[in-house]
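#structure-requests
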Amino acid sequence: MKIINGKKIADEILADLEKEIELKKLKPCLAVVLVGDDTASRLYVQKKEQTAQKIGVEMRKHFLSEKVSEKEILDLVDSLNQDKQVNGILIQLPLPNHLAADKIIQAIEPKKDVDGFVRGSQFKSPFILAIDRALQETGQDLIGKEAVLLVNSDTLSQALKSHLREIEFIEDLKKADIIITALGQPQIIKGEMIKSGAILIDGGISKQNGKVVGDINRESVKDKAKWLSPVPGGLGPITVAFLLKNVVLAAKRQ
């Protein structure tokens, strides 16, 4: 089984961005809104900030109480929409249950929606771009390949099917040449469940016994899968790199 090295791919993207920022004297700025004290979410924001700082992207953090009202967040989003120094806005998910996530996300100006979730957004989703890039890394001809999508979002499922048009999507896991998963259920996919020679793209993140793990049980698939995008070190770094690429693109456009 070959491993898709997400960090290596991300480093290549980030190096190009750093050069572009310096050459064009850009001052890209990303505003991140985080509600509550979810440990994983704070870790994600911290990693994004560390990567952003390395290449010259400013990141403004807005940490809000878990009890914040919907109106307060919408007012903040409106303020960030109006702020000419802010090029991109990201709402860190998940949000507490009392908040309507879709309503809040749709309040972001399409020209600042660097996460690619707003209807009419000017950007493609960094997560979907990361999946596409990971598949390209395998060097396999994907035309006519059969894939299974295991994701917990209808929006993401439809977006992926639209983006990866050369792939035929099926329901039978055992017959799939490609398995793309983003369930957040620790190591639910095991070797006996997959086809020999399958390409596995793991986008699920959860914690098990204090360790960050994906949806795929790496040990059980190692003798059966042909390629694996692992957790950690797979889609995560690539997704952050494409997010920052969108921020830089927004700065150029604005």
